[in-house]
Protein backbone atom coordinates (compact mmCIF):
# COMPACT_ATOMS: atom_id res chain seq x y z
CA UNK A 1 0.00 0.00 0.00
CA UNK A 2 1.07 3.59 -0.62
CA UNK A 3 2.24 5.70 2.34
CA UNK A 4 -0.37 8.13 3.61
CA UNK A 5 -0.09 11.89 4.07
CA UNK A 6 -2.89 13.47 6.09
CA UNK A 7 -3.45 17.21 5.71
CA UNK A 8 -5.65 19.01 8.24
CA UNK A 9 -6.41 22.61 7.50
CA UNK A 10 -8.37 25.36 5.83
CA UNK A 11 -10.63 25.41 2.80
CA UNK A 12 -11.37 28.77 1.16
CA UNK A 13 -13.04 30.06 -1.95
CA UNK A 14 -10.69 32.68 -3.39
CA UNK A 15 -12.05 35.71 -5.23
CA UNK A 16 -9.04 36.79 -7.29
CA UNK A 17 -8.60 40.11 -9.09
CA UNK A 18 -5.70 41.16 -11.34
CA UNK A 19 -4.97 44.90 -11.09
CA UNK A 20 -2.42 47.21 -12.69
CA UNK A 21 -1.57 48.69 -9.27
CA UNK A 22 -2.76 48.05 -5.72
CA UNK A 23 -5.37 50.59 -4.53
CA UNK A 24 -4.27 53.22 -2.03
CA UNK A 25 -6.50 53.90 1.02
CA UNK A 26 -9.76 55.44 -0.20
CA UNK A 27 -9.05 54.58 -3.84
CA UNK A 28 -11.11 52.32 -6.11
CA UNK A 29 -9.33 50.55 -8.95
CA UNK A 30 -10.74 48.48 -11.79
CA UNK A 31 -9.98 44.81 -12.12
CA UNK A 32 -11.16 44.86 -15.76
CA UNK A 33 -12.42 41.40 -16.66
CA UNK A 34 -9.59 39.68 -14.79
CA UNK A 35 -11.68 38.08 -12.04
CA UNK A 36 -11.68 34.42 -11.09
CA UNK A 37 -13.42 32.31 -8.46
CA UNK A 38 -10.89 29.74 -7.36
CA UNK A 39 -10.62 26.99 -4.78
CA UNK A 40 -8.13 27.94 -2.07
CA UNK A 41 -7.20 27.74 1.60
CA UNK A 42 -3.70 26.82 2.74
CA UNK A 43 -4.65 23.33 3.88
CA UNK A 44 -6.54 22.45 0.70
CA UNK A 45 -3.85 24.03 -1.50
CA UNK A 46 -1.14 21.96 0.18
CA UNK A 47 -3.16 18.76 -0.15
CA UNK A 48 -3.67 19.39 -3.88
CA UNK A 49 0.03 20.13 -4.43
CA UNK A 50 0.97 16.96 -2.55
CA UNK A 51 -1.38 14.86 -4.68
CA UNK A 52 -0.16 16.39 -7.95
CA UNK A 53 3.59 16.42 -7.32
CA UNK A 54 4.23 13.04 -8.92
CA UNK A 55 5.03 11.22 -5.66
CA UNK A 56 3.59 7.79 -4.79
CA UNK A 57 1.60 8.86 -1.74
CA UNK A 58 -2.08 8.75 -0.74
CA UNK A 59 -3.25 12.22 0.31
CA UNK A 60 -6.18 12.54 2.74
CA UNK A 61 -7.67 15.93 3.59
CA UNK A 62 -9.53 16.92 6.76
CA UNK A 63 -11.39 20.24 6.93
CA UNK A 64 -14.79 21.93 7.07
CA UNK A 65 -16.90 23.79 4.50
CA UNK A 66 -20.29 25.48 4.35
CA UNK A 67 -23.42 23.42 3.86
CA UNK A 68 -23.85 24.09 0.13
CA UNK A 69 -20.20 24.06 -0.94
CA UNK A 70 -19.75 21.22 -3.43
CA UNK A 71 -17.26 23.34 -5.42
CA UNK A 72 -14.38 23.09 -2.91
CA UNK A 73 -14.78 19.36 -2.31
CA UNK A 74 -14.99 18.65 -6.05
CA UNK A 75 -11.77 20.60 -6.66
CA UNK A 76 -9.94 18.54 -4.02
CA UNK A 77 -11.16 15.28 -5.50
CA UNK A 78 -10.28 16.40 -9.03
CA UNK A 79 -6.68 16.87 -7.85
CA UNK A 80 -6.59 13.29 -6.55
CA UNK A 81 -7.10 14.12 -2.87
CA UNK A 82 -9.27 11.81 -0.74
CA UNK A 83 -11.73 14.30 0.78
CA UNK A 84 -14.33 12.08 2.42
CA UNK A 85 -13.43 13.47 5.87
CA UNK A 86 -14.41 17.03 4.90
CA UNK A 87 -17.40 17.97 7.09
CA UNK A 88 -20.17 20.50 6.40
CA UNK A 89 -21.29 23.32 8.69
CA UNK A 90 -24.98 24.27 8.82
CA UNK A 91 -24.33 27.73 10.26
CA UNK A 92 -21.00 29.00 8.89
CA UNK A 93 -20.10 29.59 5.22
CA UNK A 94 -16.98 28.20 3.60
CA UNK A 95 -13.95 30.37 4.35
CA UNK A 96 -13.25 32.99 1.73
CA UNK A 97 -10.38 35.17 0.57
CA UNK A 98 -10.08 38.29 -1.56
CA UNK A 99 -6.83 38.14 -3.53
CA UNK A 100 -5.41 41.17 -5.37
CA UNK A 101 -2.58 40.46 -7.82
CA UNK A 102 -0.50 43.31 -9.23
CA UNK A 103 0.24 42.55 -12.88
CA UNK A 104 3.65 44.18 -13.20
CA UNK A 105 5.28 42.76 -10.05
CA UNK A 106 3.31 39.53 -9.56
CA UNK A 107 3.01 40.45 -5.87
CA UNK A 108 -0.25 39.88 -4.01
CA UNK A 109 -2.38 41.22 -1.15
CA UNK A 110 -4.90 38.92 0.55
CA UNK A 111 -7.80 39.36 3.00
CA UNK A 112 -9.16 36.15 4.55
CA UNK A 113 -12.47 35.39 6.30
CA UNK A 114 -12.26 32.14 8.27
CA UNK A 115 -15.90 31.03 8.08
CA UNK A 116 -16.27 27.27 8.66
CA UNK A 117 -12.50 26.91 9.15
CA UNK A 118 -13.01 28.18 12.69
CA UNK A 119 -15.07 25.06 13.41
CA UNK A 120 -12.75 22.59 11.65
CA UNK A 121 -11.77 19.49 13.62
CA UNK A 122 -9.83 16.36 12.67
CA UNK A 123 -11.03 13.16 14.33
CA UNK A 124 -8.29 10.63 13.67
CA UNK A 125 -9.05 7.06 14.66
CA UNK A 126 -7.75 3.56 14.02
CA UNK A 127 -7.23 3.18 10.29
CA UNK A 128 -6.09 6.79 9.84
CA UNK A 129 -2.42 6.04 10.55
CA UNK A 130 -0.26 8.40 8.48
CA UNK A 131 3.46 8.70 7.76
CA UNK A 132 3.17 12.50 7.86
CA UNK A 133 0.55 14.94 9.19
CA UNK A 134 0.59 18.47 7.74
CA UNK A 135 -0.88 21.45 9.61
CA UNK A 136 -1.15 25.21 8.96
CA UNK A 137 -2.19 28.34 10.86
CA UNK A 138 -5.61 28.97 9.27
CA UNK A 139 -7.56 26.79 11.72
CA UNK A 140 -7.74 27.33 15.50
CA UNK A 141 -4.68 26.42 17.57
CA UNK A 142 -6.83 24.18 19.77
CA UNK A 143 -7.93 22.19 16.71
CA UNK A 144 -4.31 21.75 15.57
CA UNK A 145 -3.26 20.61 19.06
CA UNK A 146 -6.10 18.09 19.18
CA UNK A 147 -5.13 16.82 15.72
CA UNK A 148 -1.48 16.26 16.71
CA UNK A 149 -2.40 14.44 19.90
CA UNK A 150 -5.01 12.24 18.24
CA UNK A 151 -2.62 11.30 15.43
CA UNK A 152 0.14 10.48 17.92
CA UNK A 153 -2.29 8.15 19.71
CA UNK A 154 -3.10 6.44 16.41
CA UNK A 155 0.53 6.40 15.19
CA UNK A 156 3.29 7.57 17.58
CA UNK A 157 5.76 7.49 14.66
CA UNK A 158 3.88 9.98 12.52
CA UNK A 159 6.05 13.00 11.61
CA UNK A 160 4.09 16.22 12.14
CA UNK A 161 4.88 19.23 9.92
CA UNK A 162 3.53 22.66 10.89
CA UNK A 163 3.52 25.44 8.31
CA UNK A 164 2.95 28.31 10.74
CA UNK A 165 1.22 30.57 8.24
CA UNK A 166 -0.25 32.96 8.91
CA UNK A 167 1.67 33.50 12.15
CA UNK A 168 -1.01 35.71 13.70
CA UNK A 169 -1.59 33.73 16.90
CA UNK A 170 1.67 32.10 18.00
CA UNK A 171 1.23 29.04 20.20
CA UNK A 172 4.57 27.83 21.52
CA UNK A 173 2.73 24.83 22.96
CA UNK A 174 1.78 23.79 19.42
CA UNK A 175 5.30 24.36 18.09
CA UNK A 176 6.75 22.18 20.84
CA UNK A 177 4.42 19.32 19.82
CA UNK A 178 5.57 19.04 16.19
CA UNK A 179 8.64 17.64 14.45
CA UNK A 180 9.17 20.18 11.68
CA UNK A 181 8.17 23.84 11.35
CA UNK A 182 8.07 25.52 7.92
CA UNK A 183 8.09 29.33 7.97
CA UNK A 184 9.03 32.30 5.84
CA UNK A 185 11.26 35.05 7.21
CA UNK A 186 8.50 37.15 8.80
CA UNK A 187 6.86 34.09 10.39
CA UNK A 188 10.22 32.94 11.76
CA UNK A 189 10.75 36.39 13.27
CA UNK A 190 7.33 36.29 14.96
CA UNK A 191 8.07 32.89 16.51
CA UNK A 192 11.54 33.97 17.64
CA UNK A 193 10.06 37.07 19.30
CA UNK A 194 7.41 34.96 21.04
CA UNK A 195 10.13 32.71 22.49
CA UNK A 196 12.24 35.70 23.59
CA UNK A 197 9.31 37.21 25.50
CA UNK A 198 9.15 34.15 27.76
CA UNK A 199 10.93 34.42 31.09
CA UNK A 200 11.46 30.67 31.34
CA UNK A 201 11.99 27.90 28.80
CA UNK A 202 8.85 26.25 27.52
CA UNK A 203 8.05 22.88 29.02
CA UNK A 204 9.32 20.17 26.74
CA UNK A 205 6.72 17.82 25.34
CA UNK A 206 6.24 14.56 27.25
CA UNK A 207 6.97 12.52 24.14
CA UNK A 208 10.49 11.11 23.59
CA UNK A 209 13.06 13.58 22.29
CA UNK A 210 13.58 13.44 18.54
CA UNK A 211 15.62 15.35 16.04
CA UNK A 212 13.53 18.23 14.77
CA UNK A 213 13.80 20.57 11.82
CA UNK A 214 13.02 24.14 10.85
CA UNK A 215 12.58 24.97 7.16
CA UNK A 216 12.99 28.63 6.25
CA UNK A 217 11.49 29.53 2.87
CA UNK A 218 13.16 32.54 1.26
CA UNK A 219 11.37 33.08 -2.06
CA UNK A 220 13.80 33.68 -4.90
CA UNK A 221 16.70 32.84 -2.55
CA UNK A 222 15.47 29.26 -2.11
CA UNK A 223 15.09 27.58 1.28
CA UNK A 224 17.11 26.25 4.23
CA UNK A 225 16.42 23.22 6.40
CA UNK A 226 18.06 23.33 9.82
CA UNK A 227 18.26 20.25 12.05
CA UNK A 228 17.96 21.28 15.70
CA UNK A 229 19.68 18.14 17.04
CA UNK A 230 20.67 19.02 20.64
CA UNK A 231 18.97 22.43 20.58
CA UNK A 232 15.41 23.02 21.68
CA UNK A 233 13.11 24.74 19.21
CA UNK A 234 13.41 27.82 21.43
CA UNK A 235 17.21 27.84 21.15
CA UNK A 236 17.12 27.10 17.44
CA UNK A 237 14.66 29.89 16.58
CA UNK A 238 16.34 32.51 18.78
CA UNK A 239 19.92 31.66 17.80
CA UNK A 240 19.45 31.07 14.10
CA UNK A 241 18.98 34.69 13.13
CA UNK A 242 22.55 34.75 11.79
CA UNK A 243 21.77 31.89 9.42
CA UNK A 244 24.93 30.00 10.39
CA UNK A 245 23.57 26.71 11.65
CA UNK A 246 26.03 23.83 11.38
CA UNK A 247 23.60 21.07 10.41
CA UNK A 248 21.62 22.35 7.47
CA UNK A 249 20.62 21.91 3.85
CA UNK A 250 20.29 24.84 1.44
CA UNK A 251 18.28 24.45 -1.74
CA UNK A 252 18.16 27.02 -4.52
CA UNK A 253 14.94 28.28 -6.07
CA UNK A 254 13.91 26.64 -9.33
CA UNK A 255 15.49 28.41 -12.28
CA UNK A 256 13.06 29.68 -14.88
CA UNK A 257 13.62 29.11 -18.58
CA UNK A 258 14.00 31.99 -21.05
CA UNK A 259 10.46 31.33 -22.26
CA UNK A 260 8.97 31.31 -18.73
CA UNK A 261 7.48 34.35 -16.99
CA UNK A 262 6.48 34.74 -13.34
CA UNK A 263 2.75 35.46 -13.39
CA UNK A 264 2.09 35.61 -9.64
CA UNK A 265 3.42 34.17 -6.39
CA UNK A 266 0.03 33.19 -4.89
CA UNK A 267 0.21 29.63 -3.59
CA UNK A 268 3.95 29.14 -4.13
CA UNK A 269 4.53 28.59 -0.42
CA UNK A 270 1.63 26.13 -0.21
CA UNK A 271 2.95 24.16 -3.20
CA UNK A 272 6.39 24.05 -1.55
CA UNK A 273 4.95 22.67 1.71
CA UNK A 274 2.62 20.18 0.02
CA UNK A 275 5.35 18.72 -2.18
CA UNK A 276 7.81 18.67 0.75
CA UNK A 277 5.36 16.70 2.93
CA UNK A 278 4.51 14.29 0.10
CA UNK A 279 8.19 13.64 -0.52
CA UNK A 280 8.83 13.08 3.18
CA UNK A 281 5.90 10.65 3.43
CA UNK A 282 7.38 8.68 0.52
CA UNK A 283 10.72 8.44 2.38
CA UNK A 284 12.67 10.84 0.17
CA UNK A 285 16.06 12.08 1.38
CA UNK A 286 16.42 15.57 2.81
CA UNK A 287 17.92 16.93 -0.43
CA UNK A 288 15.34 15.28 -2.68
CA UNK A 289 12.42 16.52 -0.54
CA UNK A 290 13.76 20.08 -0.70
CA UNK A 291 14.39 19.90 -4.45
CA UNK A 292 10.85 18.68 -5.14
CA UNK A 293 9.42 21.38 -2.88
CA UNK A 294 11.48 24.07 -4.62
CA UNK A 295 10.33 22.89 -8.05
CA UNK A 296 6.66 22.81 -7.01
CA UNK A 297 6.90 26.32 -5.58
CA UNK A 298 8.57 27.61 -8.74
CA UNK A 299 6.07 25.98 -11.10
CA UNK A 300 3.20 27.60 -9.20
CA UNK A 301 4.57 31.05 -10.06
CA UNK A 302 4.14 30.40 -13.79
CA UNK A 303 0.33 30.66 -13.76
CA UNK A 304 -2.32 32.60 -11.87
CA UNK A 305 -4.11 31.17 -8.85
CA UNK A 306 -2.98 29.18 -5.85
CA UNK A 307 -3.24 25.74 -7.48
CA UNK A 308 -1.04 25.50 -10.52
CA UNK A 309 -0.04 22.33 -12.34
CA UNK A 310 2.95 20.93 -10.44
CA UNK A 311 2.96 17.54 -12.18
CA UNK A 312 6.39 18.30 -13.71
CA UNK A 313 7.93 18.96 -10.28
CA UNK A 314 9.99 15.75 -10.20
CA UNK A 315 11.48 16.47 -13.62
CA UNK A 316 12.22 20.12 -12.77
CA UNK A 317 13.65 19.16 -9.36
CA UNK A 318 16.54 17.10 -10.71
CA UNK A 319 18.98 19.93 -11.60
CA UNK A 320 18.21 22.15 -8.58
CA UNK A 321 21.36 22.53 -6.42
CA UNK A 322 21.09 21.52 -2.76
CA UNK A 323 24.12 21.87 -0.46
CA UNK A 324 24.35 19.85 2.77
CA UNK A 325 26.45 20.91 5.77
CA UNK A 326 27.47 19.40 9.09
CA UNK A 327 25.92 16.11 10.15
CA UNK A 328 23.64 16.12 7.10
CA UNK A 329 26.71 15.73 4.87
CA UNK A 330 27.60 12.37 6.42
CA UNK A 331 27.36 9.75 3.68
CA UNK A 332 24.90 7.51 5.53
CA UNK A 333 22.78 10.45 6.69
CA UNK A 334 22.75 11.95 3.19
CA UNK A 335 21.16 8.76 1.83
CA UNK A 336 18.72 8.30 4.73
CA UNK A 337 15.05 9.27 4.40
CA UNK A 338 14.36 12.66 5.98
CA UNK A 339 11.48 11.08 7.88
CA UNK A 340 13.92 8.60 9.47
CA UNK A 341 16.18 11.48 10.56
CA UNK A 342 13.25 13.16 12.31
CA UNK A 343 12.31 9.88 13.97
CA UNK A 344 15.91 9.79 15.27
CA UNK A 345 16.66 6.56 13.45
CA UNK A 346 19.59 7.70 11.35
CA UNK A 347 21.41 10.76 12.72
TrEMBL record:
Keywords: ATP-binding, Carbohydrate metabolism, Kinase, Magnesium, Metal-binding, Nucleotide-binding, Potassium, Transferase
GO term, biological process aspect, one: D-ribose catabolic process
SUPFAM superfamilies attached to this UniProt entry: Ribokinase-like (SSF53613)
Record's keyword annotation contains Signal: no
Keyword field contains Membrane: no
Residue span(s) of domain Carbohydrate kinase PfkB: 3-309
One Gene Ontology molecular-function label: metal ion binding
Stretches that traverse the bilayer: none
Gene3D superfamilies on file: 3.40.1190.20
The protein's name: Carbohydrate kinase PfkB domain-containing protein
